[in-house]
């Protein structure tokens, strides 16, 4: 797609009037001066806009609901190019013209490397994962530390889970400024720490300086252990992101659980905002079983894409190996073949986390402990300007990406449903046992006394009924270090993108 010329016509009008004189009142006169017509030739590069329109016209889940994306919207190539050129700002073009009003989760970047790194669990971060909660009914906000990423800048500082902060660089946090203060361009900032006493939060004078690092890679398995309680051997796994390639590490953890002869499993997804669909398949199969004829989830696309597939082609079944996607070694799975699983999930749990819960539901007893989840029942794929590959991102084809267009799109392309046809959870999954996190008693992750885990243990063993789970100061979550950016709550359909590519090749 070449650059396109737009001709802009300017007509200038100059108005003059007499100055008023206090002694001599006069009538104000206006004199118009017509300036010669000036034609300015402005060159608009429409390569990015063309990439966006073509991608969404083909794959966008709501393609039929956006009139400008209709296949017959433009009668000629000239009309099409003129339209693209009339929207010279790519970001505004995408947001104002191409996205459906109900779309909450499509995202994009003007640098595909930054986006693909983020989706692989690599980011610029100081390693502090935190939630943000309102103070009462006011607009004031405080932060509470959820956990610290290993080998990060935060891991070297005096800060830990259960600590609180109320300001940044001496400025109190509010609903209006927390994004700029915590997620802005400043790589280094100082947290103004706080203390909670009698449900009142106040500054304590302590300061913690944190610096963001390029390329920080988080191990998504934060904790795994086996707890002996009564006559039960309970496996506990805290998994924080469905990152590519982590299927191998998950398989190793489940191998340890299997050798320890665990009787029950507590899967902690309370801060897991999503990731790869292939990794969700591995985790679900490790829990339930490896019967590859059983459907875990099915994807549904727009009518144009759906017509490319035969019945059953979009089924995603349980798997018996780690597969070869994302560097996995195709190792046999150490499945537990359980009939019950206890999932800790909250308002920070989304996408692939919800998919595992929904996908397992028809086959086993899934006990959801926590709060209502985000509600992400949609899948997305990464696209770049590589027309010969259908614009699908392929790390082995980076030399084929248009060097003059480094943008990447992560549009919603599908809706997912389980084997029972259930997909209606856009408002989130409601817990079987509701229990909010208490910011005054967050506890230690993996410790049997941590409230959410303790409640799961109580459900498993039927003991400890006298324990109180009263929440003194519930989390009034407005955002978090993950949820503030929609890119962190994506369900990435990497295996389906291969099917899509093959389908489009058949019709070309």
From TrEMBL:
Classification via PROSITE patterns: PDZ
Domain of life the protein comes from: Bacteria
Cited Pfam families: Pept_S41_N (PF18294), Peptidase_S41 (PF03572)
Domain PDZ: 119-197
InterPro entries: ClpP/crotonase-like_dom_sf, PDZ, PDZ_sf, Pept_S41_N, Tail-specific_protease
Protein name per the record: S41 family peptidase
Source species: Maribacter cobaltidurans
